[in-house]
């Protein structure tokens, strides 16, 4: 399939204008006027916006209050009609727009779920399953039988979110809904959004939380005063946005120039890097000074290192490229439930990213005759100059998850990061592998 055929949202020269009246009286005067005299002024909420979204992308939209973020989402969700321009959307859309919109305030949460099933044509056989999932996810307890009008804003967000995601959409549109609700519910929502991303759902996401845009999205679009400013890597777009949020003279042309100046420079450096054959190299003088190897109880981690994709051991990384953290583990005896982890910290010891395999609640049964090679793929998108890599192997002992061995800061890399902003964590692990290898003395 070529890239063009994967477009699921196509926004073409969309503008949206509202007529604003100084008072309701002016509106009445205009409607009664025989002279065609106008009593309103035109306010452009969106001004000639165009972009395409590809299947499976997670796109964040950022900008100051009133810049048009919600309006563009509403137009894509077909809740608001544009004044001009056209829009094509492929697939089943589920949208969480204004808080509580789409919920019948007089009905209970449960009755709203049934209503939602009916409106969305959920098959009879699937209805009970949807109800169960939504009730469980929203975790409203006895409030599920209360009318929605008695809900707090956090409760409304829980129900709206649970409905939107359990409907199995092709395109999920989320407008700031996650800013309400408590931390544990937000965490649950983010985890669910991650799961939908993995399934290939296309996601449009409006948020004032820069860290959420960076950690969730593959792409960010910045709007200002209804106009398009930038479209690019979340870290870069958010970085410039936060740098210029207080700039009263901000105009699109100025921002575009700045972006080009900054990032064409970065691009050139990347291209230069590509001309150098190796994606990074090994500097033998670069060693961690903070390594701590904990006492091992039945397992030993060794050969913790980073390789590039051609298999060379490296510790000077190129920005934006993919690498493998790997280590080997040998066990002294049979271990029923083991899992392997890695963590990346910055110079100050702050955790930047971590990964565990097997994922979630699974464990691996260990054969002591075998050694294991653990590999974690990651992308070098860190915005810190050095990264320190730790490794751990854990197991369940007496119902407790304990470390069988743990090496803190066992390997260090320079990231080639060039400071253009300070927007926090941006590295994402992609996947991990566990391989069986022959024991030397076997
Ligand atoms: N129904 C309406 N009538 C008149 N003006 C409107 C209407 N809806 C939105 N606007 C105006 O359009 C502009 C864009 O609004 P929109 O809600 O899209 O902004 P936003 O970026 O989502 O803001 P926020 O971050 O505060 O949610 C604003 O100036 C707003 O006042």
From TrEMBL:
In the UniProt record, which is one GO cellular component term?
membrane
Alphabetically list the UniProt keywords: ATP-binding, Nucleotide-binding, Transport
SUPFAM superfamilies assigned? P-loop containing nucleoside triphosphate hydrolases
Q: ABC transporter domain spans which residues?
A: 9-250
What domain of life does the native source organism fall in? Bacteria
The record, for InterPro entries, names: AAA+_ATPase (IPR003593), ABC_transporter-like_ATP-bd (IPR003439), ABC_transporter-like_CS (IPR017871), ABC_transpr_TagH-like (IPR015860), Bact_Polysacc_Export_ATP-bd (IPR050683), P-loop_NTPase (IPR027417), Wzt_C (IPR029439)
Q: Is this entry keyworded Cell membrane? A: no
**What CDD domains has UniProt attached to this entry?**
ABC_KpsT_Wzt, Wzt_C-like
Which Pfam families did the record assign?
ABC_tran, Wzt_C
Entry's Gene Ontology molecular function annotations? ABC-type transporter activity; ATP binding; ATP hydrolysis activity
Query: Which SMART domains does the record match to this protein?
Result: AAA (SM00382)
Belongs to which family? Belongs to the ABC transporter superfamily.
Protein name as annotated: ABC transporter ATP-binding protein
Q: Which organism is it from?
A: Nitrincola tapanii
């Amino acid at each position: 399939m070529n890239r063009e055929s994967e477009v699921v949202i196509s926004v073409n020269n969309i503008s949206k204008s509202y007529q604003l009246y100084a008072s309701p009286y002016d509106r009445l005067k205009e409607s009664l006027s025989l002279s065609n005299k106008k009593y309103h002024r035109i306010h452009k909420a969106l001004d000639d916006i165009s972009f395409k979204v590809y299947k499976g992308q997670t796109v964040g939209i950022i900008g100051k209050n009133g810049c048009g973020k919600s309006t563009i989402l509403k137009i894509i969700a077909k809740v608001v009609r544009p004044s001009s321009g056209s829009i094509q959307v492929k697939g089943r859309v589920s949208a969480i727009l204004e808080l509580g919109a789409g919920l019948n305030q007089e009905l209970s949460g449960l009755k709203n779920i049934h209503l939602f099933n009916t409106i969305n044509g959920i098959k009879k056989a699937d209805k009970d399953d949807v109800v169960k999932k939504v009730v469980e996810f929203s975790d409203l307890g006895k409030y599920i039988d209360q009318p929605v009008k008695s809900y707090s804003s956090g409760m409304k967000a829980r129900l709206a979110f649970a409905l939107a995601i359990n409907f199995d959409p092709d395109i999920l549109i989320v407008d700031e809904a996650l800013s309400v609700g408590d931390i544990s519910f937000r965490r649950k929502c983010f985890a669910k959004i991650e799961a939908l991303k993995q399934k290939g759902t296309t996601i449009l996401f409006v948020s004032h939380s820069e860290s959420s845009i960076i950690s969730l999205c593959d792409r960010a679009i910045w709007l200002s005063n209804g106009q398009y400013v930038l479209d690019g890597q979340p870290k870069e777009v958010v970085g410039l946005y936060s740098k210029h949020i207080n700039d009263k003279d901000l105009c699109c042309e100025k921002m575009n120039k700045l972006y080009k100046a900054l990032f064409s420079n970065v691009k050139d450096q990347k291209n230069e890097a590509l001309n150098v054959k190796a994606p990074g190299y090994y500097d033998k003088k670069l060693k961690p000074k903070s390594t701590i190897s904990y006492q091992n109880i039945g397992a030993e981690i060794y050969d913790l290192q980073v390789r590039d994709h051609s298999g060379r051991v490296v510790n000077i990384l190129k920005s934006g490229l993919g690498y493998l953290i790997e280590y080997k583990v040998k066990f002294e005896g049979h271990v029923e439930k083991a899992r392997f982890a890695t963590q990346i910290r910055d110079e100050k010891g702050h955790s930047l990213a971590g990964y565990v395999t097997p994922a979630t609640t699974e464990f691996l049964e260990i054969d002591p005759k075998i050694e294991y090679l653990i590999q974690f793929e990651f992308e070098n998108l860190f915005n810190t100059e050095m990264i320190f890599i730790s490794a751990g192997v854990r197991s369940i002992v007496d119902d407790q998850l304990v470390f069988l061995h743990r090496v803190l800061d066992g390997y260090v890399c320079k990231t080639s990061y060039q400071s253009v902003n300070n927007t926090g964590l941006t590295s994402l692990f992609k996947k991990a592998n566990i391989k069986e290898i022959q024991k030397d003395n076997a």
